[in-house]
Amino acid sequence: MYRCFPIALMLFAAPPATAQNVSQRQPVTLPAGSGPPPVSTQPTMVVEPVAMMIAACDADGDGRVTRAELTACVARSFAAIDTAHAGSIGYIGYGDWALKWLGDANALPSPFSVDADNDNRITLAELQDALAHAFDRLDKDHDGVLTRAELLTIRASTGGTEGRGKRGH
User: How many CA atoms lie within 13 A of 5 on its CB side?
Assistant: First the structure.
């Protein structure tokens, strides 16, 4: 029954088609207990935080990211966080890196998945390896170059709010 709700709402809110007194309109009521309104099933395009970071590594501005561009970009981003030049950063440092490059300190990949040797420190080699795996996963045509289209993820959308994070608005 709620399928008629948008149409009924438009008809109720629309100006009268003929000259009639507005007070003659009857309000539209929906039956109680007929279930939730229908939801949209249109696909939604999203970009993973790691894909946004990879897109930012397009050094020559051609809309494509090569492995060489990604490798150089990750090295620059790591050096910017490893200000002590220790060769590794702790999980807090990784959170700072993730906030700057992924948009959120808690974005994936997590420091636990990047820290391959589980020493609670992340080296440039570990970060390079984690992002190389993300590059391979996103490289749908396996040509060694990521386009903007490959960086998009298309998901079915239910139109509801379930499954949304703290920024789901």
Answer: 13
pLDDT in tens, 45-68: 888 999 999 999 999 999 999 999
Question: Would you kindly state where each structural domain of the chain is located, as residue ranges?
Answer: 49-156
The percent helix, strand, coil of the chain (3-state, each to 5) is 40, 15, 45
Find where tokens 């609670």 sit.
Answer: 120
| pLDDT tens track for 135-165 | 999 999 999 999 999 999 887 765 555 444 4
Strand partners, 43: 156
Give the rounded distance of the alpha carbon of 117 from its chain centre: 28
Q: Is the dihedral of CA 9, 13, 16, 20 positive or negative?
A: positive
SS3 46: strand
Q: Going by C-beta distance under 8 Å and a sequence separation of 6 or more, which residues neighbour residue 29?
A: none
Q: What are phi and psi of 156, to 5 degrees?
A: -70, 135
- What is the domain class of 49-156 according to CATH? mainly alpha
- Asked if 152 contacts 141 with a C-beta cutoff of 8 angstroms, the reply is no
Give residue 21's Cα distance to chain centre. 50
Angle at which helices 91-101 and 67-81 pack, to 10 degrees? 130
Does the predicted model carry a pTM greater than 0.85? no
Nearest to 131 by CA among 69, 79, 84: 69
